[in-house]
């Protein structure tokens, strides 16, 4: 795997070929990235709604009524994922994270388990009570997941485009996210670029190293 080539060639796909579908075994790599992304103190404050058929994509596309230029990016993609973030990490949720870690064998002793729980609650308390940005902090973890998954897609030869240009409230209502304690933060479409996708031919534009790196 040539990581430099992958990151240089990856781009936001503006036009998908609707005739090209991602094979189930290939999309499994995307699902693995969604599930295994890093998050602060392993909070995993995310939920994903995945559409791989016309009916499902049409439900997500309801969120483009006021932003119709993004509708084809959903309709023509192979798979579309709604990224949702928890609004708050309540006691039940934090306990569920700990229980899953315990089930997965992350703790050698009861003391280690309690230390892990205390550390998580410490950081949660900082964001809830001191910085008072719990909701934003949890959403940041989902964006971390999104970046991780976009790279995984590129490494697997799958094209993608992340979109905030959708009506998030429509998605919240369509999928009952609010009642479940989540909110939609973005949509990502996955598939394979169309032959006439203009963005594929454009050179990548980034600041020079000297402008973005400070080495000490």
TrEMBL record:
CDD domains: NfsB-like. Pfam families: Nitroreductase. This is NAD(P)H nitroreductase. InterPro entries: NfsB-like, Nitroreductase, Nitroreductase-like. Belongs to the nitroreductase family. One of its GO terms (molecular function) is oxidoreductase activity. Residues 7-192 form the Nitroreductase domain. The keyword Oxidoreductase applies. Keywords: NADP, Oxidoreductase.
